[in-house]
Amino acid sequence: DVVSRIMGQQLSDTWGQQVVVENRVGAGGTIGTSAAVKATPDGYTLMAIFDTSTAAPYLYKINYDLLQDLIPISMVARSPMLLVTNANFPAKTLPSLLQYAKDKPSTINFVTVGPGSPARLMLELLKNSTGINVTVVPYKGGGPAMVDLISGQVDAMFAALPTVAPHIKAGRLRVLAVTSGKRSNLVPGVPAMSETIPGFDTEAWVGIMGPAKIPPEVVAQINTDVAKVLNSTEIKNKFFENGLEPSYANPEDFERWIRKETARWAKVIREQNVTLD
Fold first, then answer.
1. How far apart, in Å, are the Cα atoms of 5 and each of 16, 209, 247?
2. 3-state DSSP helix/strand/coil % of the chain, to nearest 5
3. CB hemisphere CA count around 190 (13 angstroms)
4. pLDDT (tens digit, 9 = 90+) per residue, 88-119?
5. Which pTM was predicted?
């Protein structure tokens, strides 16, 4: 929502007409995606696709094919998640957390906020990559989860930077690592997960897609306009304030990214037996 509204304002100025952001929430983004698939393919209805969209086909019953019924237009933004613990948790680094989990299997209580959420998928990727056993504690919303994490009722979670930044600054939470493949300027000095777990590289992200039959010249023009907007100082500053980094990609590269993410989460969901229950 944040990315859509920031981009919508800037693209309204670029195109000389109002960009309206319409939220279609529910079922891991599949409700909004279904609406975009059915839209007239004239370039006037676009969809903000996000990270969980590539996992949705393996968790929900859907009536569309992401790359047959929609066309990639551009990547827009990326943001690493943070692995955080409550301030009193004994492990103060990622290596020590992994060792703690191996020494005391299933004793670490890991928060998740939905089966298809980044917090859950990244936890399953962590388990898949390291073989550790932890106790998954599902919450219906981020608010209650954060209250219990801060109070020490639960131990750890993957969370978005804007959500946890004030609590880290206040000393209520401790950040152990960022999920991106390398350290991020958004959180200087924080190690990357890949420094301990080679190959661990995943981020929250947002891109733009549209109905599959949008004319190629329209796709090209939208991509060009998005690239110009993302290169502006104003966008970079607004994204940074919200824990985001501009991340442009042309349609071909964005399609490759979607295919890679889809294959990755299909493997994790299958091997870890992730379900909606």
1. 16, 16, 16
2. 45, 20, 35
3. 23
4. 999 999 999 999 999 999 999 999 987 778 88
5. 0.89
